[in-house]
Design brief:
The complex is a heterodimer. By secondary structure, chain A is α/β, with parallel strands linked by helices. Chain A contains 16 helices and 13 strands. The chains are: A alpha/beta, B mainly alpha.
Chain lengths: ~375, ~300
């Protein structure tokens, strides 16, 4: 009994105000210092603003497949990531004042993005792999000028329909964008929630020439198809994981997707096919731009060099199913994988077999985005 | 020096005499913060809503009401507004309906450890809002808990696709997510009810049901009103639930606002939409308050 009361006295003694304030102050100071410590540690790493999913540590030699590389050696890990679900969303954040080092838009964005004045050209001398990049990509209209490379291509691929061969009744030679309108599959279709993919695929079906500036008639023609497509669609999504899961479970039987989706599903053993519609698939490529106020200028170049290196290219092709921009990556990639992806013969021919689009004017892009959203909502 | 001394003395005397001045002084840090983070952005929004977007990052700063005309004449926004209000009203109604019995049970039938019960009822709030929405996606999904359960029982042959991606999925998710906001105020007002009134009613021959409608329900109405307002206002503008479980049919006004500030790149229209939705909610809330006030007065 005595023991207990002395313990109690020791621990439960009434606390006086001064002591209480002291302890409160101590807790406050230590709490306030926590975020500061984190900032201090992370400051030397560059920030990479990219699509959700591309925050893959393997691109920087810090993952489970690619376990080492110059970037990880220098910084002790991957860069800081910031994520957007859609490039337009990313641009909006930067317009509102969000500053990063390197950003990951796609080819059709380049001209409009440059017009915002938020970017600067890369320092070509610091880009180690620039000369190995397919010239078809790096010399695209608007990608470079006398100041240097503005847009550094990294990966390219196709947008088409991934479908379940066991659930969709169609012969490979009959594949067409028309498949999406088949009344038998109403409510069993998923599409990418982005005008840059879904709307443009409908434009291909409408017979719009994507190499020309778009007219109002072109937009109207495509909108009519989009309106016809909308009741067929179960989900509009930017999340490729849920798209893949919906295909795997049979919740949807067809989906407009990038070639990452069928590759992932093949390897899990699902019966899927990436259609080659007779109107043409849509070829896209994406790359890196440098923010004009990049706080870590040389770090941004380290990100660029890591992403364009042949090792990253090999990882990207073997695990993501996209083509890489660095020509040297093809010689070190597993030939069987390249054969499955259809990249073995001539990647340039593959790239050019799809429909490439030129960047459209700001007005046209904005109108397309607004029309797409209104149609999606049901108007 | 003397003048300085006099004025400070005057001020001090004034301060000691005036209660309201003292109150404002006490409130001043809060008022400053509120002005900084609410009032100034709000004024900014009003100004922005009167501008016009030109091109990608530029505004025409001539003041015009065009954006508001678009908001109130465009059929799309009318449908989105009414859908948001209906979804929110349904959510509010269902939440209060489900929360009332729970609060009633704790207030009248739990004798010991009431605090523990209350804490247990707020348990869903211990996880993040986003996680709760995702949980409903898992429950309602194609391979979800409900579908696999029904398949296993042999009630259905094929998963029901109607559970997810529509306004009812939004209502279900919101109802669960906001439950605690209804339980707590209703519980407080039930707890406050003077038990001797109930005894008196019983002594005078009221059946339990009549007792409930004559005493318990009217006296707990302030809690119900508070719960309704607490749930209605934030759910009208909910963005994340419709975008995750609503699909394209469950698209609500907040999603349209987000679009204008994002891919639509029409910030003035987005600002006009937000202000209009604020105005609509304010009007509805005021009307609701006035109606419920007269109603409760009549009962007493």
């Amino acid at each position: 009994m005595d023991n207990r009361s002395s313990l109690r006295q020791r621990y439960m003694q009434p606390i006086n105000r001064r002591k209480f304030l002291k302890q409160l102050g101590l807790a406050g100071v230590s709490l306030a210092a926590v975020p500061g410590m984190q900032f201090a540690r992370a400051a030397d790493k560059p920030t990479y603003f990219t699509w959700g999913g591309y925050n893959d540590d393997n691109f920087f030699g810090a993952g489970e497949v690619v376990t080492s590389g110059p970037f990880a050696d220098k910084y002790g890990g991957p860069p800081n990531y910031a994520i957007f679900g859609d490039a337009e969303e990313g641009l909006t954040k930067m317009k509102a004042g969000f500053v990063v080092d390197a950003v990951h838009p796609c080819s059709t964005d380049v001209i409009r993005w440059r017009e915002t004045g938020l970017f600067q050209a890369w320092d070509n001398d610091q880009l180690l792999h620039l000369n190995d990049i397919f010239p078809q990509l790096s010399k695209m209209h608007g990608a470079q000028d006398y100041r240097g490379q503005w847009f550094l291509p990294i990966e390219w691929g196709a947008t088409s329909i991934t479908y379940r061969t066991d659930l969709v009744d169609i012969q490979p030679e009959d594949e067409s964008w028309e498949m999406l309108f088949d009344p038998r599959y109403k409510g069993k279709i998923a599409v990418i929630d982005s005008a840059a993919d879904t709307w443009y695929c409908m434009a291909i079906l409408a017979g719009v020439d994507l190499m020309q500036p778009m007219s109002d008639a072109d937009i109207e023609k495509t909108n009519i198809l989009m309106k016809k497509l909308r009741p067929q669609v179960r989900m509009f999504t930017n999340d490729m994981t849920s798209l893949g899961q919906a295909l795997a479970s049979g919740e949807v039987v067809m989906a407009i997707s990038w070639n990452e989706t069928p590759v992932g599903l093949w390897w899990e053993g699902h019966p899927v096919r990436f259609a080659s519609p007779k109107e043409g698939t849509m070829t896209w490529f994406c790359g890196l731009m440098l923010h004009k106020d990049a706080p870590n200028y040389s770090g941004a170049h380290d990100i660029a060099n890591s992403l364009t290196s042949p090792v990253t290219g090999q990882y990207l092709m073997e695990n993501w199913g996209y083509g890489h921009a660095n020509q040297k990556a093809f010689s070190i990639t597993d030939p069987d994988t390249l054969a499955i992806l259809g990249l073995d013969a001539d990647p340039v021919a593959y790239m050019e077999s799809g429909v490439f689009g030129i960047p459209q004017s700001d007005e046209v892009e904005t109108r397309i985005n607004r029309d797409f959203e209104a149609i999606k909502t049901g108007f | 020096m003397n003048i300085y001394h006099k004025t400070t003395q005057k001020l001090r005397r004034k301060l000691q005499r005036s209660e309201s001045l003292k109150g404002y002084l006490l409130l001043s840090p809060t008022i400053l913060v509120m002005a900084g983070i609410m009032l100034i952005p709000f004024i900014g929004m009003i100004i922005l809503s009167l501008w016009t977007q030109i091109g990608y990052a530029k505004f025409d700063t001539t003041l015009t009401l065009n954006n508001f005309i678009v908001v109130f004449t465009n059929e799309m926004y009318r449908v989105l507004f009414s859908r948001s209000l209906v979804v929110s009203a349904m959510t509010t109604f269902l939440t209060v309906l489900l929360a009332y019995p729970m609060a009633y049970f704790v207030a009248f039938h739990v004798q010991r450890r009431k605090l523990l019960w209350i804490i247990l009822m707020t348990l869903p709030f211990w996880t993040s809002y986003l996680l709760r929405v995702f949980a409903w996606k898992v429950i309602l999904g194609y391979n979800g808990v409900i579908n696999s359960g029904l398949l296993w029982l042999g009630i259905i042959n094929e998963p029901i696709t109607l559970l997810l991606y529509n306004p009812s999925a939004v209502i279900i998710t919101l109802t669960h997510a906001w439950a605690a906001f209804a339980i707590l105020p209703i519980y407080v007002s039930l707890e406050k009810i003077d038990r001797s009134l109930l005894e008196a009613a019983t002594d005078l021959g009221d059946s339990p049901l009549a007792r409930f409608f004559r005493i318990t329900l009217p006296l707990s109405l302030p809690g119900v009103v508070a719960a309704t307002v607490l749930i209605f206002i934030p759910t009208v503008g909910d963005y994340v639930t419709p975008s995750l479980v609503g699909g394209s049919d469950g698209y609500m006004i907040a999603n349209a606002i987000q679009f204008q500030f994002g891919r639509g790149s029409n910030w003035p229209l987005g600002a006009a939409l937000s202000l209009s939705s604020m105005a609509v909610v304010t009007v509805i809330t005021i009307v609701y308050f006035l109606v419920s006030k007269t109603l409760t007065q009549n009962i007493r």
